[in-house]
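Lab notebook, bench 4. Still working through the backlog of constructs that have no structural model yet. Next entry is a single chain of 357 residues. Request: give me the structure tokens for it.
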Amino acid sequence: MQRPRRISKTVQVGQVQVGGGAPISVQSMTVSKTHKVDTTLAEIQGLADAGVDIVRVAVPRPEDAAALQDIVQGASVPIVADIHFNHTYALQAIEARVAKVRINPGNIGKEEWESEVLLAAKEAQIPIRIGVNSGSLERDILDKYGYPQPEALLESALRHVEICSRHGFEDIVISVKHSDVFFMIQAYRLVAERTDFPLHLGVTESGSLKSGTIKSAIGIGALLADGIGDTIRVSLATDSIKEVEAGHAILKSLRLGRPGVNIVACPTCGRLNGDLFSIVKDVEAAVDARKFDKDLTVALMGCAVNGPGEAQGADLGISLGRGRAHLFKRGKVVGTVPEADIVQTVLDAIESWDAQA
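Model written out:
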């Protein structure tokens, strides 16, 4: 079945293409003070090691803006400057050659300040993300709708797209983030219908690792399943590396991410034979640690009812019996494995997997 994909313009964020049919990129944001250059660069490298594609840094102080050049030169991934309230910081970010500038139209100030930023970005060929947010809409729009409705976020985004258009600036990425998952989905659908600019997906203020991941998976996943979205950030109140991991997990679940091992496991019931819980936990931990780049599905199944069928549908799989398991490869049983050896056998099979064989 052909997967749908909204056709969007191409925006180049450093070496990462966003939109235009490019792979969906994963973003995150540093939590360290940007002016503490060594600390920030170390955090950025940690995110890069975890698989991030683009990193955003906050610029709330003059010393942060002054540090951007060192950050850009020392980072191994494209850097986005996150600007609120002070347009002069955006101008400094452009001068520092960041890969993209994110501004929030609702709090950047006067339109002439926004225009000044656009002209500088156009000359430097640096894209801008119009970052509309349910928590910081323009006062007149909020008064009109009474609440950050999806239509309110759309109106704010289109207002600033029009400003960009008047200046001949179209190097734009749009986000319309909302803390309400349903409103977030509807807002992005409205923008997707009305524009062809790349969309940065995210549920803002989503919460903790547990609740935030669930909200983000629903919001981001629903849109991606419909072909909407070009780059994503899972916003979590925890270590930013967890954001990157969650982002890649969302993409993997929809077969949209970079190559990797996809593990499926059966739900539990009274038919379960053996310690499937430990097997799944150990296999997942080992797969994450080894960072396999082989694109295959591994099924870990707990009984003879659903097990053989699911395992046969995967590239590799096991189906537990009493004290042992059948090992499947491409739908065929290739051996029987003692339960104590299952984890290592599965890892060995992944390691030696040859897609052409």
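Notes after review: The mean pLDDT is 91. The two ends are 25 Å apart (CA to CA). Flag for follow-up if needed.
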